[in-house]
Amino acid sequence: MRLYDISLYRLPWVWLQLLAAGSLLVSAGCGVPTYDAEPFKVHIVVLIPSSNLDSGISEESLEREVDILNKYFVAESGTPTPRFELNDVVFYEDLKGTSCGDLLTLATATAPYNGTAWETAIDGCMDEKARSPRAINFYIVDSWSEDRGFENANSHGRFNSGRPYVLLDWERLGHNIQSPGEHEMGHAFGLDHVCVEGAKRDSDTNIMASASCGLGSGGLRNIGFNDEQVTIIWQHAEKIRENLEPASNL
Ligand SMILES: [Zn+2]
Question: For domain 38-245, is the CATH number 3.40.50.720?
Fold first, then answer.
């Protein structure tokens, strides 16, 4: 039997078949992203004084934002997407005397959103209460605009070269108004907007749909990420993981 085995592997067609099988495995490996099962930590920081907040906002209600992410940050096909877990909840009052005062100034300013200023303030912040180096930082803000004042509810998410963060307007907590958490987290994982021509406010649309193209509403954003988006998410997830400090550095 042993002799037969050896002679079998001497046959050229056997090697050809093995080589073909090997190349199939390699090509499949190239297109398939690595599914990282370890959840990403989410560090929630409320940048609004408690006295200005609706009384319904509590540590428990903020913790639910992580459940919302795990429920809705999903792929249409059911392909796995990154999971999330709470790091900590920090309130405005907890940041008294912080070295990251620029963040508090930006958060309470009656000035239009300035993305560069936010990025600079977040990147320069070394107070771990205000910016965790081990987590995706998720800031609750009260966004302001010229025409709507603090009624404005714009929110933002940035990949920020692998140190992602989200700015979520408090009026959108609890999955309110166009699936805000998963949409902004999509940006944080490197996704751009999707234009859905002719979409109305109540149309079923992809999580990343937006009215910014001028051809339709962002819609309900209730359709999970498509295969292309999932691939982009996992590519960015890998870079984010490389940049996050491990918990063991505590
Ligand atoms: Zn967006």
Answer: no
Q: Quick check: 16 pLDDT over 50? A: no
Distance between Cα 161 and ligand 1 center (Å)? 17
Q: pTM for the whole thing?
A: 0.83
Q: Give 32 Cα–ligand 1 centroid separation in angstroms.
A: 26
Distance (angstroms) between ligand 1 centre and the Cα of 187 equals: 7
Ordered strands of the 40-46 beta sheet: 84-90, 40-46, 136-141, 165-169, 156-158
pLDDT confidence of 149, banded at 50, 70, 90? Answer: confident
Find the 248 Cα to ligand 1 centroid distance in Å.
34
Give me ligand 1 centre to Cα 172, in Å.
13
Report pLDDT for 246: 83
Give the separation between CA 230 and CA 78, rounded to whole angstroms: 10
Distance 14 CA to ligand 1 centre (A): 53
Instruction: Work out the average pLDDT over 112-116.
Output: 95
